Amino acid sequence: MSPLPPQPISPLDGRYRAAVGGIGEHLSEAALNRARVHVEVEWLIALAERRMFGAAPLDDAQAAALREFASGFGEPEIRELARLEATTRHDVKAVEYLVRARLAELGLDRVAELTHFACTSEDINNLAYALTIGAAVHEVWLPRAQEVLAAIEERARAERATPMLAHTHGQPATPTTFGKELAVFAARLARALDRIDDIEILGKFNGATGDYAAHVAADPDADWESISHAFVTGLGLVWNPLTTQIESHDWQAELYAAIAHANRILHNLCTDVWTYISMGYLSQIPQAGATGSSTMPHKINPIRFENAEANLELSTALLNSLAATLVTSRMQRDLTDSTTQRNVGVALGHSLLALDNLARGLGEVAVDREALAADLDVNQEVLAEAIQTVIRAEVVAGRSTISDPYALLKDLTRGHRLTAEELRAFVERLDIGDVAKQRLLALTPATYTGIAERLVDHLE
């Protein structure tokens, strides 16, 4: 057997690349290195602007050329970094050498020693990760999640008045509306997404153990805390003044826990929609050319929701691991976070793939109103709750002498399937006021939905 040409190991980089490519733009190794170059360049420019150690500021053209180098980071720089790292065996040092080489090309050797000045690798890394993770979440993951939320809200409003038999413990229960049940998921997801959007992304820039020791040795009169604060916030991040060598990753743990929570809400949606399909409440719209089974031609499998379910599980497992492990670093620094953080893109990629499948899946199902109506019609016993509650109210009001309304309805309905006629005859014989009796006689499982339709307005 001849060997295959090089192949991606992860399906995210193979089969599913088209659906998750946006994450790679921010959380690939190349994207991380692009962000590292950006941080190195901005730090050098910031020091020169402050005329540190007598350095003259870069003119506009020089600063623009350096920034263009950072933003234009591409294939040539990727190849050169690989060559440099083969020698340095250190990824951030390779980035420093790459920047120095560009300075030489631009005739800026005079500021070369400001490259990576007083920095530990983690000064560069933590800011690069903060920038790339923030961009991946806010520019790729959140917009897709919000599209799914909008699709759920749209279906909730469209089906707000569509009555449906509810099931608690898998058994027929007080009816609801299909739209209201979708609205529950929409409200849960909206709250989770708001929490994700609000999480602060922190950064630090304070040297080898977080004490500005090298900075002070070089210039004891400079206000290094103010310089660090201005630099970090200038990148659009929240400044963390108290760290060891590393930024403590607590914001990452908070973010991953929040995304994992959103994943779980979406997972619950997947399992419910899958169940509604299996019950016939939702019908799947055939897709031209699609095959459901290699041997059973009639089948349309709910593969979108199954795929989403599995990828949400993978994403959540990775996010949980990241959140649990990144917050621990031995004393002032260990390198366990170095390899784990490289998997953030994998964790978000699986979630993004799930969102893609959910968005497609929600557009490929339709509510079967006839099936919903038929199921309601054969479960008249769900009106027992309404009847016994009305009787209790009538007893309190002095219009009934029935001694135990709950037991009366339990004997009538538990383990029994009643017809509408049988239930109507039972109500006719009840010792209750005429107004209450007429209200019960007019009630059907399809109309016994309380204010479910109105509750969807909470999505507005």
UniProtKB/TrEMBL annotation:
Q: Which UniProt keywords apply?
A: Lyase, Purine biosynthesis
Q: Which positions fall inside the Adenylosuccinate lyase PurB C-terminal domain?
A: 329-449
Pfam families, per the entry = ASL_C, Lyase_1
InterPro entries tied to this protein: Fumarase/histidase_N, Fumarate_lyase_CS, Fumarate_lyase_fam, Fumarate_lyase_N, L-Aspartase-like, PurB_bact, PurB_C
Which Gene3D superfamilies does the record associate with it? Fumarase/aspartase (C-terminal domain), Fumarase/aspartase (Central domain), Fumarase/aspartase (N-terminal domain)
* Pathway this chain belongs to: Purine metabolism; IMP biosynthesis via de novo pathway; 5-amino-1-(5-phospho-D-ribosyl)imidazole-4-carboxamide from 5-amino-1-(5-phospho-D-ribosyl)imidazole-4-carboxylate: step 2/2; Purine metabolism; AMP biosynthesis via de novo pathway; AMP from IMP: step 2/2
Fumarate lyase N-terminal domain boundaries: 43-308
Q: Which GO terms describe its molecular function?
A: lyase activity
Biological role: Catalyzes two reactions in de novo purine nucleotide biosynthesis. Catalyzes the breakdown of 5-aminoimidazole- (N-succinylocarboxamide) ribotide (SAICAR or 2-[5-amino-1-(5-phospho-beta-D-ribosyl)imidazole-4-carboxamido]succinate) to 5-aminoimidazole-4-carboxamide ribotide (AICAR or 5-amino-1-(5-phospho-beta-D-ribosyl)imidazole-4-carboxamide) and fumarate, and of adenylosuccinate (ADS or N(6)-(1,2-dicarboxyethyl)-AMP) to adenosine monophosphate (AMP) and fumarate.
**By what name is this protein known?**
Adenylosuccinate lyase
The organism of origin for this protein = Pseudolysinimonas kribbensis
